[in-house]
Amino acid sequence: KTVREVALADHVLPADELDRLLDPMSMTEPS
């Protein structure tokens, strides 16, 4: 399972928040 799948299954965060946090583009750009 992916991190996203586990987080969704365990209701850790809402799907839209997970999408934002796990977006590869935002991880590779300076903040």
Quick recap:
This protein has 31 residues and is mainly alpha-helical. It contains three helices and no strands. The longest helix is centred in the first third of the chain and has 7 residues, at 3-9.
Describe this protein with a few key phrases.
0% strand, mainly alpha, 31 residues, 3 helices, elongated
Describe the structure.
- With 31 residues, the chain is mostly helical.
- The protein has one domain (1-31).
- The chain has helices spanning 3-9, 15-21, 24-28.
- It starts with a helix and ends with a helix.
- The mean pLDDT is 92.
- Low-pLDDT parts are none
- What assembly state would you assign to the polypeptide chains in this entry? single chain
Instruction: Give the C-alpha Rg.
Output: 10 Å
Q: Total number of helical segments?
A: 3
Q: Termini separation (Å)? A: 28 Å
Category by helix and strand content: mainly alpha
Strand content: under 5%
Fold blueprint:
Elements: H1 3-9, H2 15-21, H3 24-28
